[in-house]
Amino acid sequence: MRKTKIIATIGPATNSREKIDQLIHAGLDVVRINLSHHASPSHLRKTVQLIREQSSKFEKSIAILFDLGGPKIRVGKINKAEAIQINDGDEYSLGGDSCDIPINMELSFSDHTRGGEIKIDDGSISFDIVAVQENHLQIRAKNSGEITSGKGINFPGVKLNLPSVTEKDFTDIQLAIDLKADWIAMSFVRSADDLNLIRNELEKRNVKIPVIAKIEKPEAIENLNDIINAFDGILVARGDLGVEMPLKELPILQKKIVNQCLQNRKPVIIATQMLDTMIHNPTPTRAEVNDIANAIYDGADAVMLSGETAVGEYPVESVQIMADIAQSVEKDLDRQNFNRYILNESMHYLDSRGSICHAAMTISNDLFINTIVIMTESGVTAMKMAQHRPRARIFALSPDSNVCHQLALIWGITPLLVNSVTSTDKMIIDSSELLKERKFIKKGDSFIITAGVPVGVTGSTNMLKIHSV
Fold first, then answer.
1. Does residue 75 sit within a domain?
2. Which residue, 86, 83, 79, 108, is CA-closest to 95?
3. Could you say which DSSP state residue 404 is in?
4. Is 208 inside any structural domain?
5. Radius of gyration of the chain (CA)
6. Do the Cβ atoms of 318 and 312 come closer than 8 Å?
7. Residues 182, 296: one domain?
């Protein structure tokens, strides 16, 4: 059973009942909705409803991740032409509508850093900064090419006065609340304080949705430890990060971020161009296969597909190949893996739940028990169990569908929705019958079960039992 989770971005290529069915069958665990490109609220509502319906049909919890657009700067509307021709060595102005290269928002430029650059379209066209004015830049092209409206612009070396959350983001947060999104991803996080802007909106509505920080700015690297501690999860957004930072540093940064997340027991996602060639080709490159494998060896909770499933020609095949790679690599994971030592050495058990999870992992290893069942009201104990990266499969049984959906993103956890019970004996019997019915276990197998007594009280995990079927 695969433990690394697969996130796929829904877009024109996959926003249909048939395609979502195929994606789930191929191994989809989490649907990402990129709010930079979504249509009307009514269209978004239909998409969420469709995902929930198909998730229920397959009896598989699928998480929905709302990815906020954030203050992304793009090439504005180009007048009288479909594209701007850029010539190597020529100078251009970049700023408001009257500039050679217009942008989609008003900016005030300050603190020009020597050696600063402008990169457009994920760095395919680069410029040196020649001069800085209050509301525009004078730039010199470092290579030739074409620029079209809507292409992303990055400003490494230039400090910009941008809001952490835009007005559109605030509107989208309300949509996330109304449509019961399971996770929210915040773009262009620069400090731990950025989280307060989203948390305040959630608290106004008395709603708790875990928030993931997307690491894609140099400021985020500078404040990495505080950001990891503050947010509920981390996404390594290698696209913008690889443009904002020197490309040669990207592999080092990825491993650093993953390691710090493991040490701080936070879920971590690796994203961007994992199977980029499969947007137009039915098979990946060898380098892409190794890229996914290395993310899994490093200990990532999930790997993410973007354009591959949003607009690609082979979306289902992309998910299937990613699932196949994950299953193959996971057969090679053992306690000699580097990150297992990071986990074992960094764990400090400050509560009974953490200690019980550690004991369950140890017993499962010693007695070769391949199944751990976590009865959970809030999902916290299941997450703590996953942090140990046990060899055994983890089944999180919860009466709360929202908890099941959230846990679909977490490494190693298979969430199962169950009815509430009032006694420990019935809980164990029902768990055993459900796992047998779903063909996860058979007669003669044993599993470890953890729960809280009395049953149904959040945060009361205090029981561990070995049960024979």
1. no
2. 108
3. H
4. yes
5. 24
6. yes
7. yes
Instruction: State pLDDT tens for residues 64-86.
Output: 999 999 998 989 888 767 789 99
What was the pLDDT predicted at 34? 94
What gap in Å lies between CA 393 and CA 78, rounded to an integer?
54
97 confidence band (pLDDT: 50, 70, 90)? confident
Closest-CA residue to 27 (of 373, 402, 330, 260): 330
Q: Is 76 contained in some domain?
A: no
Q: What is the pLDDT of residue 72?
A: 87
Question: Does 9 lie in the same domain as 140?
Answer: no
Query: Is residue 263 a part of any domain in this protein?
Result: yes
Q: Cα–Cα distance between 116 and 121 in angstroms, integer? A: 17
Q: Specify whether 120 is located in the same domain as 212.
A: no
Residues 6+ positions from 387 with CB-CB distance below 8 Å: 265, 343, 347, 357
* Per-residue pLDDT, 36: 87
Q: Quote the domain boundaries for residue 409.
A: 347-468
Which whole number is the average pLDDT over 290-314? Answer: 96
Q: Looking at residue 75, what DSSP letter applies?
A: B
Q: What is the pLDDT of residue 130?
A: 87
Do 156 and 178 lie in one domain? The reply is no
> Do 287 and 402 have their domain in common?
no
Q: How many folded domains does the chain comprise?
A: 3
The residues near 328 (Cβ < 8 Å, ≥ 6 apart) are none
pTM score of the predicted model: 0.92
The span from the CA of 215 to the CA of 249, in Å, is 14
